[in-house]
UniProtKB/TrEMBL annotation:
It holds the Pfam family PBP. It comes from candidate division TA06 bacterium. Residues 1-28 are annotated as: Disordered. CDD domains: PEBP_bact_arch. This is YbhB/YbcL family Raf kinase inhibitor-like protein. InterPro entries: PEBP, PEBP-like_sf, YbhB_YbcL/LppC-like. Residues 8-26 have a biased composition (Basic and acidic residues). Gene3D superfamilies: PEBP-like (3.90.280.10).
Amino acid sequence: VSGLPEAVKPDDLPEGTKEGLNDWKRTGYGGPCPPIGRHRYFHKLYALDVVLPDLGRPTKGELEKAMEGHILSKAELVGTYQRSR
């Protein structure tokens, strides 16, 4: 991927796109849904020197292990969300 297009629909991902499991053990993004209080959300983007093999639906740990030694650069966005009730 060489860019991030605007307004991509959830079912309109580029060919070859793979998704891992989220905290709910499903694929996809569910948005913030914290208990009451302030919470941080981490979004990470990696540039790799290889195309990873098909890992099925990897966990975070499995994906990080597959990327070991292949990370050229990474970016991280940390967002906060607070639910009052």
